Amino acid sequence: MRTIVGLAAFLILAVAGIGFAYPAAAAAVCPSCYGFTGLGDNLYVEKNMTATEHANAETAPPASG
Question: How does pLDDT run across 2-47, given as a tens digit for each residue?
């Protein structure tokens, strides 16, 4: 039983640690937790962007990858 509790505690700390060590990875999982809002299909922008910046983001060509 003690092993299971220890393993559960380790997993919880490991998942929480990812948010601190790699905030970009955590933002991919929860964009609104990091100040982003959805603008379209798989497009997120900062909540504090102006209306003009939102419009520019919507009309910008997709990044080639």
Answer: 999 999 999 999 988 888 888 888 888 889 888 999 887 788 889 9
State the pTM of this model.
0.57
Half-sphere exposure of 50 (CA within 13 A, CB side): 3
- Give me the domain span that covers residue 54: 24-65
Number of domains in the chain: 1
Q: Which residues contact 46 (CB under 8 A, 6 or more apart)?
A: 35, 36, 37
Kindly state whether residue 47 falls inside one of the protein's structural domains. yes
